[in-house]
């Protein structure tokens, strides 16, 4: 008997699904909050009034800015084992997989964007609180969403698809009834494919190579002493708010415009903004003097104080606004596509039988790349100003565009089973229910 989601989806009650998604993405809020923690804290720990025992030099600042990404990579490696060993809910390090597997295809695009939206919200909260709180209290506040997540997840169901994979059909049925009401689908396919794994790993690698992590981590030092109308910490908060707006726009377009259209737009916007920043950093003269000794002063090397000797006050203001606007365009481009869609596509295209291990591999590759890039960023700025890293980011954006055109499939409107079938046969298929399934 043919079975169509189109008949059942309008009758599905999504309220409990939203609660389960909210419980899962609290960890993403904490992730985004912690990732950009160095941005307002580094200036505090490198300032003249800091306790000498806490003052950071260049090497310490580089480790402080990048060590979190190393921990995220270790979490990804752990998720490779834990996703299948203890389940998606308990190993919530890869929340995108859990969310994808509990969501139906009508809302999966929007729900799949929630981890990125929440991570951006966490980063914005950190930027905003950094305006009024010292670094110790910023650390305390970061523990609140993690505690709330632990409490809520106790009451959430496990992934129905994983339960089906383990042969626990009654538990899967119970979980689906909790999530969707009386209507559920348990007809799942579990072949292994190398192409979706390579696509997912490639996207996560390119996502980090665009330079998004070092830009977010060192945003306030990058803006420090720039000739703009607001202090650097306010510039970072403005960009954080704009990033949240852009991710919200992407979520609303995810199931309308399609994944590939947003990835094309994202790549183009990031390319244009990175190219602009490359040109600006190349044409900005280097100030004379000895080599800077720490991160903040090393970024002064490319600050717009250097333009002051050649431009009048109005020209300095104009030159200072261009990097801010270019950074906002870069954030807009990233948030429209390569930010949320890499997470969403990873959870969509990976075959069920390898989803736990492969998603952990993707996370590990992503954050090992982020760690290496965040570490190298400080030294590249020290030796070559921002010109070299921005030039590299510009080239990567071209590869993002080509990768989207050649490798990435369009998954909008397809169920996870249809996507698996696409990689197996190259065509979609109609989901059918077995008689035993219909009787349950």
Automatic annotation (TrEMBL):
Membrane spanning stretches: 17-36, 61-86, 107-129, 135-155, 205-224, 236-254, 261-280, 321-345, 357-381, 387-408
Annotated ranges, domain Major facilitator superfamily (MFS) profile: 1-412
Subcellular compartments: Membrane
Keyword Transmembrane helix attached: yes
Pfam families, alphabetized: Sugar_tr
GO molecular function term, any single one: transmembrane transporter activity
Topology in the lipid bilayer: Multi-pass membrane protein
Alphabetic keyword roster: Membrane, Transmembrane, Transmembrane helix
GO cellular component, one term: membrane
Keyword Transmembrane helix carried by entry: yes
Coarse class of the protein's main subcellular location: membrane
InterPro entries found in the cross-reference section: MFS_dom (IPR020846), MFS_sugar_transport-like (IPR005828), MFS_trans_sf (IPR036259), MFS_Trehalose_Transporter (IPR050549), Sugar/inositol_transpt (IPR003663)
Protein name (record): Major facilitator superfamily (MFS) profile domain-containing protein
């Amino acid at each position: 008997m043919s079975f169509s989601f189109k008949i059942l989806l309008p009758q599905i009650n999504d309220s409990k699904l939203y609660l389960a998604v909210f419980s899962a993405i609290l960890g993403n809020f904490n992730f985004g909050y912690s990732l950009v923690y160095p941005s307002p804290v580094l200036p505090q720990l490198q300032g003249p009034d800091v306790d000498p025992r806490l003052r950071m030099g260049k090497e310490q600042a580089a480790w402080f800015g990048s060590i979190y990404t190393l921990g995220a990579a270790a979490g990804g490696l752990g998720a490779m084992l834990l996703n299948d060993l203890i389940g998606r809910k308990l190993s919530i390090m890869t929340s995108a997989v859990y969310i994808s597997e509990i969501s139906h295809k009508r809302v999966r695009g929007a729900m799949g964007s929630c981890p990125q939206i929440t991570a951006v919200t966490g980063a914005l909260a950190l930027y905003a609180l950094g305006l009024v709180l010292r670094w110790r209290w910023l650390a305390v506040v970061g523990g609140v969403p993690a505690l709330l997540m632990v409490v809520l997840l106790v009451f959430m169901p496990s992934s129905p698809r994983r339960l089906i994979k383990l042969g626990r059909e009654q538990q899967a049925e119970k979980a689906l009834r909790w999530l969707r009401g009386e209507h559920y689908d348990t007809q799942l396919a579990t072949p292994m494919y190398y192409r979706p794994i390579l696509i997912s790993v490639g996207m996560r690698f390119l996502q980090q190579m665009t330079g998004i992590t070092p830009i977010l981590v060192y945003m306030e030092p990058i803006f420090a002493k720039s000739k703009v109308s607001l202090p650097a910490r306010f510039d970072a908060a403005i960009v954080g708010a704009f990033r949240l707006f852009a991710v919200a726009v992407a979520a609303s377009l995810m199931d309308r415009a399609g994944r590939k259209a947003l990835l094309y737009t994202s790549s183009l916007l990031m390319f244009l903004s990175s190219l602009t920043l490359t040109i600006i950093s190349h044409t900005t003269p280097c100030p004379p003097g000895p080599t800077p000794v720490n991160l903040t002063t090393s970024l002064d090397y490319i600050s717009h104080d250097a333009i002051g000797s050649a431009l009048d006050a109005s020209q300095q203001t104009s030159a200072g606004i261009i990097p801010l606007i270019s950074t906002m365009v870069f954030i807009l481009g990233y948030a429209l596509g390569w930010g949320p869609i890499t997470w969403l596509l990873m959870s969509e295209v990976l075959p069920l039988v390898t989803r736990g291990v492969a998603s952990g591999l993707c996370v590990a590759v992503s954050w090992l790349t982020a760690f290496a890039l965040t570490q190298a960023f400080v030294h590249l700025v020290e030796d070559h100003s921002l010109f070299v890293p921005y030039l590299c980011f510009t080239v990567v954006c071209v590869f993002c565009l080509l990768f989207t055109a050649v490798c990435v499939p369009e998954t909008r409107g397809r169920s996870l089973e249809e996507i698996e079938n696409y990689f197996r046969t190259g065509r979609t298929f109609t989901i059918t229910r077995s008689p035993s399934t219909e009787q349950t």
